[in-house]
Structures are given as C-alpha cells and as structure tokens.
Amino acid sequence: MKAKIFSILASAAMLTGVASCDSYEPTLNGTKEGKLNTASIAVEVSNAEKIINDAAATLKGARSRAVVDLSGYIVTVVDANGQPVKKWTYSQMPELPTFTEGSYTVKVTSGEEPVTAAWDAPWFRGEKSFTIKADEVTDVDVVKCTLANIRVTVKFTDDLVKASAGDLKAVVRSEDAQSLTYTPSETRSGYFAAVDGLVTLSVAFSGTVYGTEEKFTKAVTDVDAGQHRIITFGLKNNPNQPPVPSGQIDPTEGINVRTDVTDEDLTVDVPFEEDVLDPSGRPGQEGSNPNDPEQPTPPVAGDAVKFDSSLGDLSKVYDIDEFIADGSVADLKVTVPAGIARMMVKIDSQVLPAEELGSLGLMPEFDLVNPVNPDNPDMGTKLTEMGFPIGDDVKGKTYVEFDITGFIPLLKELGAGYSNFVITVTDNDGNTAATTLRFNKK
What is the pLDDT, as a whole number, of residue 221? Predict the structure, then answer.
C-alpha cells in the first residue's frame, strides 16, 4: 500500500488544471413536479464519540475518532401532513427523485424507532424541511442528528464493591416496564426509548453490604431524549468503621449506601469534552457530513479570517470522479489581516486512516506553522516535498494559498469513501476560524 500511495502521489504532483465549478442543472419537464437532489443530504451526528463505543474509533494519533457509518441510516420524506411519501436507506437513495411541488420534511434516523431498553443501542434522529418547486432541483440543508433515546450508565464505587458480598445489582426500569439489570461488572450503557409521557426512571438497588441486605428504590425524574443519566452507588459511611447493622435502609436516611445521579446533555456538543465528528459519506452518493462536529467551526470575529477557493462553494461535498474529470482545483485562499499565528490541518478520511497517513510521513493533524513533531520529526520535509507551505512561509503571513489538488487522484485510487480536510486558522489577535474541503468517492 505504501508503494502504491507514493506512486499515485508522484503522478498526482504533475497534474495541473483550471478550477471549474459544476453548474450542471438537469432539465425537468412538467409544471407541477420538481426534483430533490439527494446528493445534498449531508448528515451530521452530534456527540458521536461520546455515545459510540471507543472500539468504533478507527483513527489514532493526537485524538481518537468515532467513525459513524451512515449507510444503514433510514431516510424518510414526509409531506406537509406528516404522511411518508418516500423511504430509503442512506446508501440507496436515488439521485434525483421526483416530487409534486409543495412542502416536505426529510427525516433521518439511525434505524427503526426503538421500542425497548437495550445495551449499547443509541438511536439518532434529525430532520430538515424543504420545498419542491415546479421544474426545479431542490437541495437540502445539513440534517443534524442527535441522540433521541435516553442513555443510562450505572457505576458502583470500589469501596462499596469491597464491602459487599458480591451480589450488588441495580435494576433500571422505565414507565413502560422495560428494564435492564446493572452489576459492577457491567460496563455498557443502557438505552431507553423516550416514549411519550416518560418522565421518570426507577432504580432499584439491592445487595449485601457489611453483612446486611440493603434494598431501596430511587426515582430519576425529568428524563428526556438526549440525556445521559449517570447513576453512582457508593458508601455513605467510612468504610474503615463497620456500621451498626441497619436492616433495610431508607434512601434518604440510611447510613450505608448513597446514590448520586448526574446528567449530561447529549443533544448538543459539549465544549469541555473532546471534540466530536461525524464525517460519514453515503456510499454511492455525494453525502459526507458538510460540517465537522468533532471540530466545530469557531466563530469569526468580523472579517479577521477569510476563506476562498476555486471550488466555489465550501459547504459542498465534491464528487472525486467529477472533480478529476472537470480538471478542478482544490485550493484554499486564506486572508488574515492580523497575520497567521497557527494553521492546523486535519485529514479525516475513510481511505486514509492514520496508519496509511503514516506511510506518507504524515499525521492525521498537524500545524503548518510549526510542523515539527517529536513522534514524526521528518514531517516538515514530507510536507515541503508535497508542496505544502510550512514554517516561515505561513507564520505571520496575511495571505496563504493551501492546495490539495495533488491528493485527489490518490483518494480516487484508494477506493470509495469520504475525505475531509479541515483547516483551522488562528491569527495574531487570537481570532480563530475554520473551514473544510470535502470530497467523496462513490
């Protein structure tokens, strides 16, 4: 693979082209119908990395990444009355389906709606409205999917486990009688359907602590979709001082076991956690997420940092085959009046994971101003060989051009999948802005 990658890069380095934008618009017949450009349906999954098991992360390096496979997501189009009119999986959407003119909503879910409690079964949901006009092709804005069921994690502190007879358990039950049983050895999270009217979960604790059987039930109130309720059981008393046997304890007055419940809102990205990304491309279509929720675009202070590109629309996902056929240019023109202090590049690609980037002498994320990295001391040389500006060619500059055109043939040869190049610029006044060059191979 390494030899193949270098061979492709060598060929790509000799390619030149003139930037062009795809302005093709299909001609439609009739006066009462229009078409939906399903290639514009880009899906962004919020907090994917927090919710999906770490085993799903495929990129290694400075940060681990959770890669969300959107191919099996369900896409449903409903009319103004809420009646379904079209339904596909994300990987099998037709390119330009026809609809009668009117108002519609596209709904995207990670699967059929859950009806029970289950382990490691997050369910994501999002929707976006659009309008079909006669003889026109309609694009859809980004569909942002968030967790639509309730995540529950139960923890037992080490001192409680040591004081027990090995029979600790907690049964979490929803109002529709669905339940999951947690023990100290259970590390998975449970997911409960956020059905209408469900506002409370009950947690029944039982176990032998210091030789005394303890049982009580606690109510977890105000539950809602997108929450992560973390329930922790621990000792109330000093474990070095055996308590007087208390029999069945009251959850508010007992001396042995305490219950702590914390809540994390998973309906939005939480800034104090590691950034989250859902960069999944739709197999067979242009459909990667157009924004990078694992590295949200920071706000721009006025016109402190400006981005421009020969591609034109930086919110679009570009089809690699069409890009090459058109002789397009994948450049980024960066204007920074206060001068560049930092220019981070992040390569997030299904076909160029960390191990393949390593064969190129690159890392998934690097700073063009200071590309020296103790884990990869030769990376600056590699970047220069590939035509990247680095060091003094970037630092303090008010205008820099960043060109990845030579990478695109490589991505074509490596097969189907999305590839996102996220560029984050910080100026000398501390203003930060980011944009993404997005490509997908069908």
Answer: 86
